Structure formats: C-alpha cells, structure tokens
From TrEMBL:
InterPro entries, sorted: DUF3593
This protein's record includes keyword Transmembrane: yes
Native organism taxonomy: Bacteria, Bacillati, Cyanobacteriota, Cyanophyceae, Nodosilineales
Protein name: DUF3593 domain-containing protein
Listed transmembrane segments: 6-21, 33-52, 72-89
Keywords: Membrane, Transmembrane, Transmembrane helix
Highest taxon above the source species: Bacteria
Length: 95
C-alpha cells in the first residue's frame, strides 16, 4: 500500500474517533477544537503536496515554505489539544 493510500484510509478511523469524542461530551472544548483543527492540517497538506510535486517536481517535505505552512496547522492543533487538557486538569485541581 502506498503512503498516499495509507494517508487517505487513515482519515476514516480518525473521523470515527472525532465522532465518538464529540458524542461523549467529556472532552474539553478547546482540546476538541484542536482535534478538529487537525482536519485543517490534512485539508491543507494534500493540495500543498500536489502543488509541490507539480510546480517544483519535489515532495512536500522538500519545499520549505509549503511544508512549513502546512505544518503550522499541525502545531496549532497540538497547542490547542494541550491547552484544552491543561485547563481541564487545572480546573479539576481547583475543585
């Protein structure tokens, strides 16, 4: 299986994860937003990778400005998840 196919197939389990995480109602809101922002990362990475291949003949990882722009959304997602859970833990400690 190619890495592109694996990337596409991995989206379905992640959507299931988001569905159950949202449905549980137990995930801190900011962390949940962070998990959804990861979908923006995926949505940006795919066309950026296609553009890198067509415009430069290179993989996305080898076109720094495109790769960095796409990775920004991964970083943002991670920050939101961490802050969401951090705030929830602090709230539990305060109670």
């Amino acid at each position: 299986m190619s890495k592109e196919s694996l990337f596409a197939v991995s989206l379905f389990p992640y959507l299931g994860f988001l569905y159950f995480l949202t449905k549980s109602g137990q995930t801190p809101k900011l962390a949940l937003i962070g998990f959804y922002v990861l979908l923006i990362f995926v949505a940006v990475t795919i066309p950026a990778g296609i553009y890198a291949k067509q415009a430069y003949g290179l993989e996305l990882a080898n076109v720094d400005w495109l790769h960095g722009g796409a990775e920004f959304f991964l970083t943002l997602s991670n920050i939101l998840v961490v802050l969401g859970f951090r705030n929830a833990v602090q709230k539990l400690k305060a109670d």
